Amino acid sequence: MLAEAGADSPFLGYHPEWAPVPFPAVVCVSVNDAIVHGVPDDTRLAPGDLVSADCGRCSAAGRATRPSSFTVGRARPEDARLIATAEEALEAGIAAAVVGNRIGDVAHAIGRVCRAAGYGIPDGFGGHGIGRTMHEDPGVPNEGRPGRGMRLRHGMTLAIEPMLVGGGTDDYYTARDGWTMRTVDGSRAAHAEHTVAITDDGPRILTAL
Question: Using CA of residue 17, residue 124, residue 12, residue 182, what is the dihedral sign?
Answer without folding.
Answer: positive
